[in-house]
Amino acid sequence: MKQILMIGTGGTIASEMTEAGLVPGMTGAEFLRYVPSVEKLCQVDCLQVCNIDSTNMTPGHWLAMAQAVEEHYDAYDGFVICHGTDTMAYTAAALSYLIQESPKPIVLTGSQKPIHMDITDSKTNLLDSFAVACDGRLPGVTIVFGGAVILGTRARKTYSKSYGAFSSINYPVLGVVQEGRLVPYIQPPVGAAPRFYHSLNQRVSLVKLIPGLSPAYLEFALRESDAVLVESFGVGGVPAGDQGNFYDLIRRAEEAGKTVVVSTQVQNEGSDLAVYNVGHRLKTDLGVLESYDMTTEAAVAKLMWALAQTKDRREVAKLFYTPVAQDILGLPE
Questions:
Q1: Contact at 8 Å (CB) between 250 and 286?
Q2: CB neighbour burial string for 235-258, b if at least 16 within 10 angstroms, e if fewer
């Protein structure tokens, strides 16, 4: 029988109702009792890393989860991490960079309704996650939710209340779980052994452009950060003309050794700075990076990981453009 470690972090699945709303309270061992049929699949041990609403999740918690997996990696066949849905995509992306090329499954799951409710998606999501972790054919970091198995670097929460809360962005789902059995569609590349990383640089900011945004917002983010992800419009660019201060700010920041990445607010198909003048100048004159088909969640987490490996802006760019767990596929020839 397979040996699986379940790591609890809190979230809706572990929440209890209070006068002030839902608050995580149950440990993994406590809410696992609601799903006794898991015992037929595998032998489960439980480890509680934290018990928080995922809104309160930080990169420090990501490092703690990765450390828990590393410390227990040899003793288990797979891992199930129970997590709140609101920041699960960020955590899945971060763990994809902190734990690379794992031949064992590392599955994140959670629910839209607490496990103690009569009508809830938590029990199905838990059973599906243990099925994927025990099966072993889809290794590495994934999210299992609403019957879908999504690559950790490609997941995004696209529904705030529906049970099928997560979508795979710019990449197919890896498989589905039907009646408790995994049906794999894609087998992601896997290494012979995992590579663990132990640090992240939290000095990464995200600036979302809106029409008429003052360049002062970007100026502040650049001053306070080592890297800034600018979530732009369409295929990418920053305001020019009367709003041309954006270009000057980015030029000065890059001269100071900071990294600027331009992404898009459009969920599907990614960026292409070469198309319009407002983006072309950024790439040819300033040499900014772009996220192409990466998700915002993956781009943020990858910058934190890359900046923790090197302070050299050119080396950061090299790491950012090196695919990890199929996170970026739209690079030009």
A1: yes
A2: bbbbbbeebebbbebbbebbeeeb
Tokens 């600036």 -> residue: 207
- Write the DSSP string, 257-305: T-EEEEEES-SSS---TTSSHHHHHIIIII--EE-TT--HHHHHHHHHH
Reduced to 3 states (helix: H, G, I; strand: E, B; else coil), residue 27 is: coil
For residue 33, the tally of other CB atoms under 10 A from its CB is 10
- Active-site annotation holder among 9, 12, 120, 153: 12
Structure tokens at 17: 């109702």
Helix, strand, coil percent content, the chain, rounded in steps of 5: 35, 25, 40
Q: To which H or E segment does residue 131 belong?
A: helix 122-135
The span from the CA of 112 to the CA of 177, in Å, is: 18
User: pTM for the whole thing?
Assistant: 0.95
Which residue in the block uniquely carries the two structure tokens 């198309």? 275
- The string of DSSP letters for 144-193 reads EETTEEEETTTEEE--SSSSS-EEE-SS--SEEEETTEEEES------SS
Could you read off the pLDDT tens digit of each residue along the chain, which spans 333 residues? 999 999 999 988 877 767 767 777 778 788 888 889 898 899 999 999 999 999 999 999 999 999 999 999 999 999 999 999 999 999 999 999 999 999 999 999 999 888 777 888 888 999 999 999 999 999 999 999 999 999 999 999 999 999 999 999 999 999 999 999 999 999 888 888 999 999 999 999 999 999 999 999 999 999 999 999 999 999 999 998 666 699 999 999 999 999 999 999 999 999 988 887 888 888 888 889 999 999 999 999 999 999 999 999 999 999 999 999 999 997 876
Where residue 269 falls (left for φ over 0; alpha for ψ -120 to 50; beta otherwise) is left
Catalytic, 12? Answer: yes
Residue type, 314: R
Degrees to nearest 5, angle at CA 128 with 122 and 133: 125
